[in-house]
Amino acid sequence: MRFVNTLxxxxxxxxxxxxxxxxxxxxxxxxxxxxxFQLVTCESCGLNYVNPRPVGEQLDAYYASFYYGNRxxxxxxxxxxxxxRKIGPPCDDLPVLDIGCGGGDFLLACRRRGWKVVGVxxxxxxxxxxxxxxxxxxxxxxxxxxxxxxxxxxxxxWHVLExxxxxxxxxxxxxxxxxxxxxxxxxxxxxxxxxARLGGPDWFHVDVPRHLLHFDRLSLNRLLDDxxxxxxxxxxxxxxxxxxxxTQSLLNKVCHAPNHLFQLLIGHPVSKPIRxxxxxxxxxxxxxxxxxxxxLAAPLSGDxxxxxxxxxxxxDGRGDSS
Length: 322
Prior knowledge:
Number of strands: 11
Low-confidence stretches: none
Distance between the termini: 51 Å
Radius of gyration: 19 Å
Number of helices: 10
CATH class of the largest domain: Alpha Beta
Helix content: 25-40%
Shape: globular
Oligomer: single chain
Strand content: 15-25%
Largest sheet: 7 strands, mixed
CATH architecture of the largest domain: 3-Layer(aba) Sandwich
CATH topology of the largest domain: Rossmann fold
Structural class: alpha/beta
Order of helices and strands: EEEHHEHEHEEHEHEHEHHHE
C-alpha cells in the first residue's frame, strides 16, 4: 500500500458550508488502486469529505474505463423500475431529468411509465453513443446552464451527489431549471448508518477518492436549506444497495483487496488473490444473512444504509434569477 502524494493535491474548505475548520476522521484506501486518502469532518456542518483531494485531470484519472463494470441486465432493470416507481407517474407535461444518467436505464424505466426524459452525464462518458441511440436527450455537465429555467418537473440524483466537488453550484442550477413546486429526488450513502459505523474505512461506499463527499441527514439538509429547497420526505432503506453493501463491507474486514466480491461480480479486469476469492465464496451466505437482519432493522431508527430525500422548490420560486 502506498500513500498518494498529498502535496500535489488541493486542500479545500467544506464543499457544503465553506468552513475551513475540520477534524481528521480516518484514512481509507482506493479500492481500485493503492492510494490512501484522508476523510475529515467539517466542524460546522458535520459533512465528511476527502481532504486534500484530487481535482480536474487528477480526479478524472481515478475513473478507469472499467469503473462501472457490468451489472446483470435483469437485476438492473428491476432496480431501475423500483426507482421509477418511487417518483410516480408524470404530473404535468414537463420531463424528468436524471443527473449522472449513465447508460440511461433509469430514464428508460421512467419513459415506460409515460415520462418525457432528459439526462445529464460527463461529456467523456462512453455511454453517450448509447443514449443517442436510445433517443434520450442528454446534456453534458458543462451544459446544465443552457437548460431553460422552470422547464423540468422532477430532477433525480441517484448516488451522484457524493461524486460532486461543488454541490452548491449543482443545487443552484437544479433550483433554476425546476418548475415552481418541482421535486428534487436525491439518494446518497448514509454516513450515519449502522453499516457505515460497522465498516469504518472498510465500508463499501467510502470508495475514495471518487466519493468526495459523505453525507448524514444534518449535512444534506444543510445543503438543501442553503439552496432554497424544502425537504419533504426522508427514507433510509434501499433494497438495491443495503444488503449487498453491508455484506461487502464485512467481507472487507477479512479480505486483502477492498470490495473484492463486487469487483468479481462486475467483471473488473484485474488479477484477484485466490485467498480473497475463496474467502468471499465461503463467507458470502452467512455474512449476507447477518446483513439482511441488520439492513431490515436499521431503517426503523433512521439508520439504514442510504439517505433518500424528496425535496421541493417552493411554489414562489424564490432564489430564481430567470
